[in-house]
Amino acid sequence: MNTINSLSLKGRKLLAVFAHPDDESFICGGTLAKYAAEGAEVTVVSATRGEMGRRMGNPPYLNRETIAAAREVELRQACNHLGVHELKFLDIRDKTVEFIDEEQLIGRIEAMMHEIQPDVVLTFHEKLGGHPDHCAIGKATTAAFRRYGQGALYFVSFGDMMQQPGKYGYTPDAIVQVDVQEHLKAKLAAFRAHRCQSELMEWVWQRDDRALRNLGRYEYFIRGNESQTGKDSLF
C-alpha cells in the first residue's frame, strides 16, 4: 500500500468530478485540503445541486423549492474551507445522471479536462460508487479521461473499505493511502458547512476535539491507470 508524501505542488492541477454537493467533503475532503495547502489548484465539479436529497435540515427548514440553492451555498462554503480553487456545476438534475445522454456528458467532461489540463483526476468508480448518480458520473469521467489521455486517474473509496482491497478485486499496490491528519480540521469545517446534510450526524456537532476523533487519518484511492511518475503519490 502506497503512502503519499508530496512536496510543493505549486502549478499542479487536480480535477475532482462528483455527483452531489458534499461528495467532495464527506469522502475525500482531507485530500483536497491537503493538496490545496501544498499549492495544487483544485477544481471541483458537481454534476447536480443535490435537490433530491432526503435530508432537509434538523429540524427541517428546506423544501424541494429551496434545497438546491441552499446546497449550492453550502458547497461553496465547504470549498472555501478546503481551499478549492474553482467550483463548476454540470446542471444535471439530482438522481438523473444515469439517464443523461452519455456521449454528450463524456464530451462535456472531456472539454473541461482540455480547459483545465489536470495532472490528477478524481471521480467515483463506476461499479463501487454506491449510488446510481455516483456510478454514472464516474463512468462518464473515466471515459472522458481515457479520451483526454493525460495525467493520472484515481477512484475515491468510502471510509477504510480499501484497507482490505482483495474483497473488491484489487491488490494493495493498486491502492494509494493519503495521510490527511494535518487537514482534518478543514475537513470537519467542510462537513459542518454542509449543514442541511450533516445536522443529523450528531458527532459532527460535538466539541471539536471529540468530533475530530471520528475522522480517519487516511483516505484511500484506487488507481485508475498507471501513474505517470511511478511515485507513491496522486501526483
What does this structure look like?
The chain has 7 helices and 8 strands. It is globular, with a radius of gyration of 17 Å. It is 35% helix and 16% strand. The two termini are 16 Å apart. Strands 1-7-8-6-5-2-3-4 form an 8-stranded mixed sheet. Helix 1 links the parallel strand 2 and strand 3. The protein is an alpha/beta fold. Helix 3 packs across helix 4. The protein has a single domain, classed as Rossmann fold, CATH 3.40.50.
Class from helix and strand fractions: alpha/beta
* Shape annotation: globular
Going across the biggest sheet, name each strand in turn.
Answer: 1-7-8-6-5-2-3-4
Order of helices and strands: EEHEHEHEHEEHHHE
- Through-space gap between termini: 16 Å
What's the CATH architecture? 3-Layer(aba) Sandwich
CATH superfamily: LmbE-like
Strand content: 15-25%
The largest sheet, given as strand count, sense and whether it forms a barrel, is:
8 strands, mixed
The total domain count is 1
| Counted beta strands | 8
**Cα Rg:** 17 Å
Pfam families: PIG-L
Organism: Paenibacillus barengoltzii G22
Protein name: Bacillithiol biosynthesis deacetylase BshB2
GO molecular function: hydrolase activity, acting on carbon-nitrogen (but not peptide) bonds, in linear amides
Supply database-style keywords.
235 residues, 16% strand, alpha/beta, eight-stranded mixed sheet
What would you say about this model in short?
The protein has helices spanning 23-37, 67-82, 102-116, 132-148, 184-193, 195-198, 208-212, and strands at residues 2-3, 13-18, 41-46, 86-89, 120-123, 152-156, 175-179, 218-223. By secondary structure, it is of the alpha/beta class. It has one domain (13-223): LmbE-like (Rossmann fold), CATH 3.40.50.10320.
